[in-house]
Task: structure prediction
Amino acid sequence: MRVDFEGRIKNRVLRSIGEKVMADVPVTEAEALYMLGTDDILELGVIADYLRRKINADVAYYEVNMNLNYTNICELRCPLCAFSRGVKDADACVFSLDEIEKRIREANAFGIDEVHIVGGLNPDLKMDYFEGMLRRIKAVNPEIFIVAFTAVEYDYFARLNGISVEEVFMRLKDAGLGALPGGGAEVFSPRVRKKIAPLKIPGTRWIEVMRIAHALGLKTNATLLYNHLETPEDVVEHLAMVRALQDETGGFKTFVPLPFHEDNTKIRARRSRTTGFGDVRLFAASRIFLHNVPHLKSLWMYLGDRMAQMLLHFGVDDLGGTYHYEKVVHSAGARTSDVGSEASLRRLIETSGFRPVRAAANYQIRKS
Result:
C-alpha cells in the first residue's frame, strides 16, 4: 500500500514524516511535538489514515460490554477524580459478590461479550474478594472476557496482601482474568502527576507493573489523560515511554487517549472542554508515533459519538463498547449517555465508510 504524500501533503515537515512512516522508520519526539502543534490537520490525517489502514484495513471494532465499578472507596482521593469517596462518606459503596453476580447475570441476559472492571483502592478488600469476583463472572458465562483492574490496583493488591505483583497476576489469571485496561497512567510527567494524583504510583512504576503483566502473557491497554495541566512536551514524553516498553515487550494492544472532565474534581483545566483540533491532532499524532501499537481507541463515551466517529479517519480503529453502568467519567460531568447500543455503534462505523466488527478486548471477533 502506497500513498502519494507529495501530491496530497504540501506541508514539508509533514510530508517528510509521511515518507518516514511509509518507509517504516519511527518518527522522532521532535516530530511528534510538531504534529501536536500543526494547523494542517487534514494533511496530518492523510498520514494517520495511511497507517491505520495499513494495520487494520477498513475494519473498525466495537464491543458489547459492561462496566463494573465495584467500589468508590479509595485511599488516594486524587484531585483529578470525581468518582472516589472516603469510607465514611454517605454515598460510599462496595458491591458484595452476590450483587456483582446479579449484575453480571442481568448483563449476560442482554448478550455482553466482556466486562470491564476498575475501582478504588479499598483496604477492606483482599485477594479472596477479587478471586471470588472473577470466578463468579466465569461461572455465569465462561465466554465472558474479563478486562480487569489498573496497574495502580495491582500494585496496591500486592502491597496490601504482602505478596508480589507476579503472584497477584497469576492468581487472578487462574480465576479468569483475560487482559488489563490502561487506567491509572494519567500522564507520566512527575511535575503534573504531583498536582493531579499526588499519592498515585509514579509513571515509572506504572510502566514496571505493565512490564510484569506483559512478561506473564497478559495483553494490556495504555491510556493518556489529556486536556488538564499537561503540556505538549508532557504528552510526547508519555508517548515515548509507552513506545519504548512496546519495543521491549510487545504487550500493549491498544492506546486510548482520554479527554479530562473536570466537574466535581479539584482540578481546573486550562480549558473546560477539548477543542476538535486538539483531539484530532492528539489522536493522529498518537497513531503515527505509536507505530508499534496495533490499535487506537476513541471512546465515544468520553468524546461524544460524533467526534469519536470522525476520528476513524484520523487513525482510530476502535470506538469502544456499549459500557453499560459506567460511573467514573460520568461522575466528572460527561454529557454522553451511560450506555450505548450495538446498533448505534455499527451505524457510526458504517456511515463513515468502515466495516464494523464486534470483538472482545482481545480483538477476537464475536460478530461482524
